[in-house]
Amino acid sequence: MSVARRLLFLGFFLPPSRASGVYRTRALANRFAAQGWEVTALAAPLGFLRDTVGSVDDSLLATLDPRVRVLRPALDTYAWEKDLRAFGWLRRSRPRLSRRRYEWLGNLGFPEHYASWGRACVRVGLRLHRRRPFDAVLATGNPYAAFAAAWGLHRLRGLPYAVDFRDSWTLDQFGDAARYPAGHPAVRWERRIMGRAAAAVFVNEPTRQWYADRYPAAADRTLVVPNGWDPDLLDLGAVGDDPAPAGRPLRLGFLGTLTDRMPLAALAAAFRLARRSPELAGATLDLYGHLGFQQTGQPVLREALGLPEGADTSADGALRYLGPVAKTAVADVYAASDVLVFLAGGSRYVTSGKVFEYMAAGRPVVSVHAPGIAAEDVLAGYPLWFRADSLAPEALAAAMRAAADAARTAGPGPRAAAREWAARYQRDRLLTPLVDRLAAVGDARAAAR
Amino acid sequence: MNVVFLSFAPDPPELVRAAVRRHLDAGARVLLVSTSTGPWRDLADRPGLTIRHVRTDPAGSGGVSGALAGGLRRLGLRAARTHALALLADRAARDALPARIDVIMAADGLAAQYGYVLARRHPRALATADYHRALPSAGGSGAASPTSAGP
After folding, report:
1. Are the C-beta atoms of residues A7 and A32 closer than 8 Å to each other?
2. For residue A405, what is the domain's CATH number?
3. Residues A438 and A407 in one domain
């Protein structure tokens, strides 16, 4: 009888977190468990998720494989504590000293507020490893304290580890440049971690290449695992295959968090221009999701979109802000939209997780982003993709008109072909190279013992 | 909505000023207790805003307390300094404090002690160091889903 490989998985945003990183984190744990690994996951403390940041979706708990054993090491919540009544004597009386204590004793200089959780992971990992050794460690970031913990376990016990960059750490993927100056603690830590990682995983090829250039000695240990979409979380049964009926105006839909990094003004101008043509007469652009990450930024976003303060429909009725959507209702948005607007900010390093779900819905997708971003590599084979060569309103409007035409004319055939293209991006399938890599690394270590 | 906004070290001042302005825009009556006057000049005429200046120099603060605060600082008794600052702030704000306070916002670490004192006196008030957050009547915490980035 073969003995199951044992994985220590460091994934802060496991369910019931509802942070954007939860889907990839959940999928990684599930996939290794399904592959026969004995998975012990170290995740965020429940008190932090529920009380400190209040970012919880309990329904996601049921989607975590029951074979995954979850432990939740402690986190110092100093940086998140805002309730004045909860401030202790030191913090009230010696605020600077209190902060320094947190930064140096709590974080030990690690440039992240999650450092104490990373240290707790090392302690828990060592204890568990002493009882029954692990074969490998997989850390997904952010938080990048998970990477540091994996590195620490490697240094202390020789455990091989892989790091999964859900986001780029020292690369500003929106600014297309290094995020920190040379010598910054984050740069030093990343170099250290990349130097000893058995594998480093990135969400797209441009990001992998950036890291391979930065750390040439580690280049042959880098690989790409795109984000993909999760069939078990997206019931597309209600999304039909028929073209939009001729009797009603079209509905274009965007789903996601609207931010000032997105070309919102270009989107609004292009849509108003496109709306003058017969294909899009009376059409609406429905915006679903949060309007920025903070209320403070909302006026700027509203202004860019032409949405009056306090109103959720523009004066001309073209744009409608319809608010956040529960994960369980996402498929309804896709069903209600004749064309999906893929709106993204950033540079060639940006893929956006939403593009995979968009394709899975089999709807015409019109791109509104700077040409050349990484998402184009994914969309390039999608038969119902429409794009412009620039962000000029005229060019975008032409793409919107073409997408509108497809919404009226594309029948079940092209839509099935579109879904077939999307099927290759089911997240579970995309994880195979990483699972294989860690299995090889773990087995090599076992053979060497 | 009665808001007491404490700013003893407005840094960066533009963020603190924007927060005060936002609360005024939301229709709150704001009592701003501050150790400096400079950052608030362009807000001084706003309806709903009352400013109380905490004088930390001995001459301006009526002598004993201000001298005490300065002396404690020079002696290295910084912990006592924050408590002395709270006493000075209370003296400066006393006549303007509303009977019912709904929100207490401390915009910096130095203001936390006085925020704590006020919070003890007004147990029903929301007492927070998160001065960017929207007021309760404006519809919640002001933050969209916290993302993996953290603060």
Report:
1. yes
2. 3.40.50.2000
3. no
Q: Are residues A265 and A205 in the same domain?
A: no
pLDDT in tens, A263-303: 999 999 999 999 999 999 999 999 999 888 666 567 889 99
| Residue A164: burial class (beta carbons within 10 Å; 0-12, 13-18, 19+) | buried
Indicate whether A69 and A132 sit together in one domain: yes
Tens-place pLDDT, residues A191-232: 999 999 999 999 999 999 999 999 999 999 999 999 999 999
**Assigned domain for A97 exists:** no
Indicate yes or no: CB of A82 within 8 angstroms of CB of B147: no
Domain annotation covers residue A436: yes
Question: Within 13 Å of residue B108, how many CA atoms lie on the same side as its CB?
Answer: 17
**Inside any domain, residue A310:** yes
Q: Are B144 and A293 a contacting pair at CB < 8 A?
A: yes
- Verify that A347 and A363 share a domain, yes or no: yes
Q: Which residue of B has its CA nearest to A81?
A: B129
Which structural domain range is residue A75 located in?
6-82+112-225+431-448
Q: Give chain B positions within 8 Å (CB) of A53.
A: 146
Cβ–Cβ below 8 Å for B141 and A166 = no
Confidence of residue B143 (pLDDT cuts 50, 70, 90): very low
Q: Letter for the amino acid at A348?
A: R
- The answer to whether A98 contacts chain B (CB < 8 Å) is yes
**Domain definitions of chain B by residue range:** 2-138
Among B134, B138, B107, B131, CA closest to B36: B107
Q: CA dihedral defined by A157, A159, A163, A169, rounded to 10 degrees?
A: 20
Q: How many domains does chain A have?
A: 2
Q: Which of A213, A192, A187 is nearest to A202 (CA)?
A: A213
Report CA-CA distances (Å) from A6 to A3, A37, A40, A430.
9, 6, 8, 21
One DSSP character per residue, A332-362 reads: HHHHH-SEEEEE--S-TT---THHHHHHHTT
pLDDT tens-digit profile of A121-139? 999 999 999 999 999 999 9
pLDDT tens per residue, range A383-414: 999 999 999 999 999 999 999 999 999 999 99
Q: Which fold would CATH assign to domain B2-138? A: Rossmann fold (3.40.50)
